[in-house]
């Protein structure tokens, strides 16, 4: 198969079906251009409106499996990813600057976030996703660049995470110029199976431990609802709310969390936030 480029606009609805597996040439000298070598992401969906992608599988690819940019009313249904846990920076689906994206009925195992939502993600639904191995379902990372856009209206529900390093996470950089708002986040009815950090807000995100924390994150987080999270944590600190000292989190609500670590209750750690806690949830320490 040679390089294929689909360019719009299209005058009518288009359906594309691929049967079989797409493989790169076995020998480097057989590569006719640079498209096989430039592996920024494996599937890119840019500036697409009112479309559905169904039953797509990605196996052992490099970097982002799917990158979604500038799309509106766009749905993934039945997406499958299979990759080793030690494959670095291999997000399953990364979404940015898009509105009305739905990720439904997916099974994602990878070496980074199963689903990651970058800046400008609005009105996104992530539902019935099986995640693991991987780094969980993440909002961010955010705040690294000055020109970033607001993130709002995110709903994650009915998902299962197994053996992941994180569960549901919001992550923002400290000591960086981005000063956006992250608001109206809902995480509901999620099962954790030995997840190391089931619930985490991390506003001191620093993946390589080479960051300056001289200045707090400028990203404002508000209106976060976390409810009905159950099963097992891989660490005692099952809930970590580490908000920015510069712009503390507001409107964080936690309901009915039923997580245990080695059969004992988890603990909650909080900084720069005063969450509303209801039901079976350990108080902040």
UniProtKB/TrEMBL annotation:
Q: Keyword annotations for this protein? A: Cell wall, Cell wall biogenesis/degradation, Glycosidase, Hydrolase, Secreted
Fetch the SUPFAM superfamilies from UniProt.
Pectin lyase-like (SSF51126)
Specify one Pfam family: Glyco_hydro_28
* Catalytic residues as annotated in Swiss-Prot or TrEMBL: 135
Principal subcellular localization = secreted
* GO BP terms, alphabetized: carbohydrate metabolic process; cell wall organization
**Could you tell me which Gene3D superfamilies the record lists for this protein?**
Single-stranded right-handed beta-helix, Pectin lyase-like
The GO molecular function terms of this record are:
polygalacturonase activity
* InterPro entries assigned: Glyco_hydro_28 (IPR000743), PbH1 (IPR006626), Pectin_lyas_fold (IPR012334), Pectin_lyase_fold/virulence (IPR011050)
Which locations, inside or outside the cell, does it occupy?
Secreted, Cell wall
Similarity comment = Belongs to the glycosyl hydrolase 28 family.
Name assigned to this protein: Polygalacturonase
Q: Which organism is it from?
A: Phaseolus coccineus
